[in-house]
């Protein structure tokens, strides 16, 4: 988390919203073999207290994760901010970005919980892509599905701490933020520019 409190979201549900929208995380943990990281799609529980994911059985992190403290990081859009975009010459370049850190103890899921996780994950994303009809595991040969799920291991991390950073030039004036938005759009970072606009509209409505 960035140390400047200006970059912490004021909306209590924004971090959860970003995790659900992005749906992919880097999972870090210390192991006897040294620090390891894995990358995985994630499912946040409805109450925002648990994060589920699955890893390949052969992943270097898998055999160490059950009972371990893990850190999950979901990253949103990011971009370089040129100092030339500011009206004030006494500025330096920086980087705007969105990141949500979640920390907690992971436990291994049983086979039934793993299948439920896969069902939830595919159902959410099939709805997003508009598949008609949506894919379900019922379309697969059950034996093949069982063989494939045997190659992965599911986990649930109970979230003990959330540490979000939404660094979108909140420490600058409204005019300077508008200049940054224009610069981001001109350099092809429309998603980050749109987030800055949304943040600005929330400030005006406050």
Question: Would you spell out the secondary-structure blueprint of this structure?
Answer:
Elements: H1 14-22, E1 24-31, E2 34-44, E3 50-56, H2 62-65, E4 69-81, E5 94-108, H3 111-129, H4 142-149, E6 152-167, H5 174-186, H6 190-205
Antiparallel strand pairs: 1-2, 1-4, 2-3, 3-6, 4-5, 5-6
Structure write-up:
This protein is α+β, with helices and mostly antiparallel strands and 206 residues long. It has six helices and six strands; from the N terminus they run αβββαββααβαα. The protein has one domain: Electron Transport, Fmn-binding Protein, Chain A (Pnp Oxidase, Chain A, Roll), CATH 2.30.110. The chain is elongated and about 65 Å long.
Task: Output the keywords.
206 residues; alpha+beta; six-stranded antiparallel barrel; elongated; Pnp Oxidase, Chain A; 6 helices
Q: Strand sequence of the main sheet, in spatial order?
A: 1-2-3-6-5-4
**What is the name of the CATH superfamily?**
Electron Transport, Fmn-binding Protein, Chain A
Q: Which architecture does the CATH hierarchy give at level 2?
A: Roll
Q: Looking at the chains present, what oligomeric state does this protein adopt?
A: single chain
Low-confidence stretches: none
Please state the CA-atom Rg, rounded to the nearest Å.
20 Å
What's the β-strand tally? Answer: 6
Choose one word for the global shape.
Answer: elongated
Q: Structurally, how many domains make up the residues?
A: 1
Number of helices: 6
- Please give the share of residues in helix: 25-40%
CATH topology-level name: Pnp Oxidase, Chain A
Rounded to the nearest angstrom, the distance between the terminal CA atoms is 24 Å
Helix and strand run: HEEEHEEHHEHH
CATH class: Mainly Beta
What profile does the largest beta sheet have? 6 strands, antiparallel, barrel
**Chain-averaged pLDDT:** 93
